[in-house]
Design the sequence.
């Protein structure tokens, strides 16, 4: 109700303001139009005054003498003064109060002049009434008052000093001027009423016009809003029809249209045009490890990365699944190869999914118009074949369709396949570590249990817990490259030995990274000795920049190490392990993970008591 009231009040205010504006505009037009009318009328009256002076004055004032009477010169000179100045003002200050007052004064002086040069003939007094009637066109009572005052002064002064020029007799009655003024006032009454009624009628018309215009504006605004809503709806529909909902990039349909336009333009102007076909390597393994939600997030992030890397004139879109196309106008095969290599290196160096710390690679195929194909389907197929060859040659590389080796690679029947199951690979790698150091192997199993418990306490999904399990089981796989003398040394390690020992995390990541299905775990294995405060190794990562799986394994690793026997010391109590981990919370360890360890241990203690 309040909103409707406010809206109605606003509309009324707008109508009122518009009505006042229209009223002022109409009045100004009336003022200007009447000014122009008098600017034409007064010169005509001046001419009339001269004619009357030449006709009547010699006979009236000079008897039979034909000499020029002073009234003739008065008609010429005085008439010119009271005519030319108002005419100038009418053009120079048209529509102003000043111009109306000057014209009213000049017009009544013209009436006085005509009465004077006619010898005070009573018929000429009617010119005053005509002047008032014409001045009433202004619809301004102040103009009529000015004219009345000028008439009164003229009759008083003229009646005292030159009565014959006003009344036509030398000795008029003393109060004759009062009678004349009363007749003027009598006419003023009706003219003022006419002005008042005319202004009221004008105000009513302006109010109606303002209301109609406001309604028109409201209707136009409603139409504009409806039109804008329809345009937005059409844009949304068009976006849905042409945009991939996951990545926000042009979809398959939109890419086909874009390729057709580029081919037509390139054909018309005889220019080169290249196409990049890229496919994410081992994307199925990523989906299997992280679930489809993780895969979708990686695709979305890849789309954003591709959009930021390409040139402003290029177009990138999602062709389907994990396949993307990049359209490169004005680019030949050599230039396209350089751009593809730049994109490839950017993708390979990018850390995807933030805390999960996943690195992805892509295989690229390049085809160009007109060297490789001239039709849309042929160009896309050529780029696809080049990409397929890049995959067969080891992935994470760029291949041109013009490569001489391409046909043999694409048409070959042999194809590398991942035949071993993921768990078998993990068991084999864990077995290598166990064979080198029985203590380390048992430690890996314990770290897996604790790390998965922490991940569960944090409320992470099955896919994330699975990733944490992989990192925990294989976090020490790099120790297979550490000499036994260092690995089994009972005392403190020297600086050189310690540098060798610290290399195991990077080595382990390299080993695991060679297994496609385990590549998502490589970043966590590399970073499990990083510290929350940035003082860890091998990369000096800090805070949230450390993959979450690595932060979890770091806490589980320390807990297991303190509570297990080592060549250089005996196992310590659980309380001692918790005290040490709490002390390092916020410096070495993520405080959130430390809290989750407490939750997990409490849950474990409760289960043991219940058992």
Sequence:
């Amino acid at each position: 109700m309040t909103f409707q009231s406010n809206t109605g009040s606003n509309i009324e205010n707008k109508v009122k303001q518009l009505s006042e504006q229209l009223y002022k505009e109409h009045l100004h037009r009336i003022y200007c139009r009447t000014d122009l009318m008098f600017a034409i009328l007064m010169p005509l009256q001046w001419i009339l005054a001269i004619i009357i002076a030449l006709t009547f004055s010699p006979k009236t004032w000079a008897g039979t003498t034909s000499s020029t009477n002073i009234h003739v010169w008065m008609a010429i000179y005085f008439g010119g003064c009271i005519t030319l100045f108002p005419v100038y003002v009418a053009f120079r200050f048209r529509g102003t109060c000043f111009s109306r007052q000057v014209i009213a004064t000049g017009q009544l002086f013209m009436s006085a002049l005509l009465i004077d040069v006619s010898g005070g003939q009573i018929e000429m007094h009617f010119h005053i009434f005509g002047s008032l009637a014409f001045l009433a066109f202004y619809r301004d009572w102040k103009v009529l008052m000015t004219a009345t005052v000028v008439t009164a002064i003229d009759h008083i002064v003229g009646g005292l000093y030159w009565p014959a020029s006003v009344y036509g007799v030398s000795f008029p009655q003393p109060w004759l001027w009062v009678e004349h003024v009363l007749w003027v006032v009598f006419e003023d009454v009706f003219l003022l009423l006419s002005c008042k009624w005319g202004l009221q009628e004008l105000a009513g018309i302006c109010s109606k016009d303002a209301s109609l215009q406001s309604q028109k504006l409201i209707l136009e605004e409603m139409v504009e809003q409806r039109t804008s809503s329809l345009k937005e709806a059409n844009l949304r529909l068009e976006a849905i029809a042409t945009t991939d909902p996951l990545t926000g990039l042009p979809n398959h349909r939109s890419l086909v249209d874009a390729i057709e336009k580029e081919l037509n333009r390139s054909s018309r102007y005889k220019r080169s045009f290249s196409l990049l076909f890229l496919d994410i390597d081992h994307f199925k393994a990523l989906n299997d490890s992280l679930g489809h939600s993780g895969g979708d997030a990686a695709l979305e992030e890849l789309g954003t990365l591709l959009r930021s890397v390409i040139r402003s004139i290029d177009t990138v879109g999602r062709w389907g699944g994990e396949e993307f196309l990049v359209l490169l106008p004005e680019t030949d095969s050599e230039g396209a190869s350089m751009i593809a290599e730049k994109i490839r290196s950017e993708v390979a160096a990018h850390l995807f999914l933030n805390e999960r710390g996943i690195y992805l690679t892509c295989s690229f195929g390049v085809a160009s118009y007109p060297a490789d194909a001239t039709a849309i389907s042929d160009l896309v197929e050529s780029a696809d074949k080049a990409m397929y060859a890049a995959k067969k040659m080891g992935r994470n590389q760029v291949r041109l369709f013009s490569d001489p080796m391409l046909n043999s690679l694409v048409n070959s029947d042999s194809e590398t396949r991942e035949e071993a199951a993921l768990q078998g690979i993990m068991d084999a790698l864990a077995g290598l570590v166990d064979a080198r150091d029985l203590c380390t192997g048992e430690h890996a199993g314990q770290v897996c249990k604790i790390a998965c418990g922490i991940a569960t306490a944090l409320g992470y999904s099955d896919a994330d817990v699975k990733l944490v399990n992989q990192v925990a089981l294989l976090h020490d796989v790099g120790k297979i490259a550490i000499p036994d003398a260092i690995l089994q040394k009972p005392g403190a390690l020297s600086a050189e030995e310690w540098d060798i020992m610290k290399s195991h995390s990077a080595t382990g990541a390299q080993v695991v990274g060679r297994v496609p299905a385990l590549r998502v775990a490589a970043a966590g294995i590399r970073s499990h000795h990083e510290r929350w405060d940035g003082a860890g190794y091998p990369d000096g990562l800090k805070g949230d920049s450390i993959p979450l799986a690595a932060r979890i394994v770091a806490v589980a690793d320390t807990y297991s190490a303190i509570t297990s026997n080592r060549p250089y010391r005996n196992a310590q109590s659980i309380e001692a392990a918790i005290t040490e981990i709490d002390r390092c919370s916020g410096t070495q360890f993520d405080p959130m993970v430390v809290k989750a360890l407490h939750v997990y241990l409490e849950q474990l203690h409760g289960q043991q008591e219940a058992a």
Notes: DSSP finds 22 helices and seven strands in the chain. The two ends are 66 Å apart (CA to CA). Residues 252-410 form a domain with the Alpha-Beta Plaits fold (CATH 3.30.70.270). The chain has a mean pLDDT of 81.
